[in-house]
Amino acid sequence: CLWEKYCTRMKYIKYESGYIVDSMAWSPDGGLLSMGSSQCSSVIIWEASTNRKTTLPFAMSGTSQLKWSPNGSYLYSASKSGHTFCVWETETWSVEYWSDFKGVIHAASWAPDSKTLAVVACDIDIKEDSPGITLYCLAFSNAPPKIQGVITPVTVDLGQQAAQYSSCGTAKRSIKGVRDVCWDTSGKRIAICYRGAPAVAVYAVKYSPFLQFSYHGSVWGPPATLPYQVKFKPKYGRGALLMVPFCHFDEPRTSLVFVPMYFT
Description:
mainly beta; 4-stranded antiparallel beta sheet; 1 helix; 22 strands
């Protein structure tokens, strides 16, 4: 269901054949809502102003994640299996598919200029001492409605940092891949939230002479907590503001950690 402004009226949106909606994402301008289900191979696009629904045939077994590009020209959609994902362009809803990555796709994030998509792939059998977790970058240099995304040579080994998190403290931790990834709106920082790690890794991003990522530091929460998600505040002055919710082990509550980052 959706509440209109000031919660004066509520409307219901039904997915196809009563399937459970597992993923949703608003377009940047708030005009379109994308919906996907792990039980259905279609993606639904709902237009807020007209209540019109458009069904996009996904050609894959269910949807696990949906993310719009910041300019609203592209929509990323990951399959339930994690072996395939696609990118729609939002003018004619043409689509391109990718399945050329080693392992399973766990998370993705668009660069603020919408020209790069960062995708994190993890080995199917993750080893505690050397987790196979890699960040790949796809370039979208053509103007919409063309897609023609290209896999760039830029890769980042995220498994090294995951291995350090798994061995910190007295107890051995099992890192199960990546839960979330977020690129800040300045384009200079990207945050990685691992599954099972006690901290969030932050990487600095440089664009000259080519796209580069370097480990910048970690964000830790209160004792006996795990991070669940990573989000950056849009347009935060001369830097970036990262928000991380940490879930407590022994009680049903969440602590929010805010980390300001100032660029020189």
